[in-house]
From TrEMBL:
Record gene name: pcrA
Lineage: Bacteria, Pseudomonadati, Bacteroidota, Flavobacteriia, Flavobacteriales
GO CC annotation: cytosol; DNA helicase complex
Keyword hit for S-adenosyl-L-methionine: no
Sample GO molecular function, one term: ATP binding
Matches recorded under InterPro entries: DExx_box_DNA_helicase_dom_sf, DNA_helicase_UvrD-like_C, DNA_helicase_UvrD/REP, P-loop_NTPase, UvrD-like_ATP-bd
Domain UvrD-like helicase C-terminal: 291-575
Keyword line: ATP-binding, DNA-binding, Helicase, Hydrolase, Isomerase, Nucleotide-binding
Name of protein: DNA 3'-5' helicase
Family that this chain belongs to: Belongs to the helicase family. UvrD subfamily.
Binding positions for ATP per the UniProt entry: A26, G27, A28, G29, S30, G31, K32, T33
PANTHER family on file: ATP-DEPENDENT DNA HELICASE SRS2, UVRD / RECB / PCRA DNA HELICASE FAMILY MEMBER
Keyword Isomerase included in the entry's annotation: yes
Domain UvrD-like helicase ATP-binding: 5-290
Amino acid sequence: MDYLKGLNDAQHEAVTTIEGPLMVLAGAGSGKTRVLTMRIAHLITNGVSPFNILALTFTNKAAREMKDRIAKVVGDSDAKSIWMGTFHSVFARILRSEAHYLGFPSNFTIYDTQDALNVMKKVLKELNIDADLYKPKKVLARISAYKNNLITVKAYMNNPELLEADERANMKHLGVIYAKYVDACFRNGAMDFDDLLLRTNELLTRFPEVLAKYQDRFRYILVDEYQDTNHSQYLIVKALASKFENICVVGDDAQSIYSFRGANIYNILNFKKDYPDAVTVSLEQNYRSTQNIVDAANAVISRNVQQFKKNVFSDNEIGEKIKVYRALSDADEAGFVAGNIWEQHNSQQRKFSDFAILYRTNAQTRAFEDALRKKNIPYRVYGGLSFYQRKEVKDLVAYLRLLVNENDNEALTRIINYPTRGIGETTQNKLIVFADSQGISVSKVLDNLGFYAPQLGLNNGVLTKLADFWAMIKAFEVMLKTDDAYTVAMEVAKRSGLIKFLKDDQTPEGISRVENVQELLNSMRGFIDEQQQLEDGDPSLSNFLGNIALSTDQDNNKDDDQEKVSLMTIHLSKGLEFPVVHLVGLEENLFPSFMSSSTREELEEERRLFYVALTRTEKQAFFTYAVSRFQWGKITDAEPSRFLSEVNSEYIELINPATESRFVNHSGLKSNIFDDEPSVPKSFRKLDPKKKISKASDALSLPQSKNLKPVSTAKIINPSGASSQDIEVGDKVRHDRFGIGEVVFLDGTDPQNIKAKVIFQNEGEKNLILKFAKLVKI
DNA sequence: TACTCCCAGATTTAA
DNA sequence: TCTGGGAGTA
């Protein structure tokens, strides 16, 4: 029981209480991941089959890391059979195998926010509803809220309160829109993010035999970040756990920061009500941060009314005070941060990867990128426009989606005339209207173009173009039956004219677009190789597409060994830690955001966000704010954030005391710490709005290849596998699944990523990544 | 049908 | 500042 050593009493209890409901309240930095990991290991060591364990985490990355760590205790194969992943990915997997119950194809498409928005725009157009009154985004947000609360179209229509509320909000057509949108998704064979949860609920409630099946399978359920579950997720967990009630939830109410997407803090606050017998364990010792940081964070969070009482403390060194910098502008702020990082890197031998810059909104990144680049400091921006959301990538993906699911109208309309092939809007509209009138999908019309041609009212030229296009798609589909996804995707990129079209654009942006497409293909190759080496791997195109739809930016930074400063929103930083944290843009209306300072609840969430940000810090935190900021193309004045004044002055040290005290706290009191002497900041930089920053083309500071790794649901790194030194071309090797073969080619210099081409006696030629393939030299 | 140009509007956080 | 949509032109 080695793994139990080194746990404190509370951790020990959390790990070893394995039967019955358990709630672990884990303060920031209290070793939560460790507890979860060891608990699973403990379950397995005590005879629970890994097959019976379900662990739901917040990111795929968290799941992967946990699996790796569990594997070290119980071994690879046991760790592999645990179902572990995000709600969305785990339930997408279940939905795929049970899709027929709901009338969906098992290879249904997953729509991301952008896809959903496009569908919504079409719906509004079709209904002839003014998109100015019904802003597509707003409408979607409302529908999303309904879905997350299990309010289906039918339930909505039968709920006078909701109808009335929407009527008051000048949205009386919402029901019709909702119905039409759901219908459109269904006909496209697609689910949006919320559907993955809603449909799972539907599956489990409508089909008791399915529920029973999964209840029996998942006898032990663990949920990480429970404070961030929404009602829909809550119900799924509750249903699955109701038979055995071996449910362990881990969370920290002080870190609930996702109410905007339906997270319901009461799920954790009311856990005791749901399970009166539940054991509660509080992990209160923070192993991550200095005392000063922990105390400051506690001081702020204690202002929230809504919370569990707990006493998070640190036994670490007291540590340095939080340093506060008052900047004159956003550029000045960024300059200070970059200078500070440079200075500490040199004088204290800190690695660049020790630093994080955390901000409230993605829009704030630009100034920091600028400043870091000027000093040649390597950095990586997380979040923002992720790789898979780039237009050129989505375009190729749309072709692939169409091959897998012909009903995916969203994909079809995206590429039917891209690259342009003379199938204009008028033609497309005729097709859509006709298909609708016949109650069939556009793809069906294209399937029988000759038959329907007379009724379409299109001239022969256009008909030919349509026929050619469809013949091309069909050819790809045929290819997919025999060739692997990568080969087909290559062919699609070439034959569709996509690559050629992009290559015609020789601007730096154009070139980077081509590179992105290439990178997508590479990542596909990697995905397939990886899947082929997993026991229950699935190298199909459909699996690849499903994976990228659910991948997040945090998940893509595989092996981010690099020496780089991390830039990200506070939301993304949850679960991470850094020796030095810069929390920037601490201004009223920015943080707390102007969108969420109206009610106490909203403000408390912003405060929790602040708490999360500060508790990412191990050693030293810096706060910065600017008195004016370049925003929306204008310079706007800003006031320091109220959160600054909520940190007791004893934890704070001012770097440049303010010229005037605009630093008031919002209970009306002047904060005593900011009334000092005036000073002139050294580095006031003129703003230069004309300066263009080429986004993706700056290879030095933004290496593309880091972003792109697809997420596999069960990537297991095998540390004991043969390393690159062991294997040479010409070696005879044995592989677990493929048997005996000979290495004919090695590719790659990065030891983490060497690929070997091996010809197996029975299985033929395979491309394997050495890291994963447990090749044994014979 | 395709492409360009101009103007308006938006910007929180994200699976 | 950046994006998207609409209008106008080739």
